[in-house]
Specification:
By secondary structure, this protein is α+β, with helices and mostly antiparallel strands. Helices cover 20% and strands 30% of the residues. It has one domain. The protein has a four-stranded antiparallel beta sheet with strand order 1-2-3-4. It starts with 5 loop residues before the first strand and ends in a 15-residue tail after the last helix.
């Protein structure tokens, strides 16, 4: 049984463009969905490529989201030791 892709919106611009973080069959992408006047055709971008494109608000939003993964203070979240 195939699992449906998981998606989380990471940024929405003032002109209606949207960016989502997508996990699909073990791969992670950023999906850009331009607004209708721009053509509205979505594209998937590997996360590394997306982050290497420069300094944009949507990249900052993804980095903030990634940063939240390090703030889990639940008792079951034991630190991982290397070495």
């Amino acid at each position: 049984m195939m699992r449906a892709p998981r998606s989380r919106e990471i940024y929405r611009s003032a002109n209606g463009d949207m960016w989502h973080l997508i996990v699909d069959t073990g791969h992670v992408f950023v999906e850009h969905m331009p607004n209708a006047p721009s053509g509205g055709r979505s594209s998937r971008i590997p996360v590394g490529t997306f982050l290497a494109r420069g300094d944009t608000p949507e990249q900052a939003a993804l980095l903030r989201l990634i940063g939240t993964l390090c703030t889990d203070e639940t008792p079951s979240a034991a630190p991982t030791r290397i070495g």
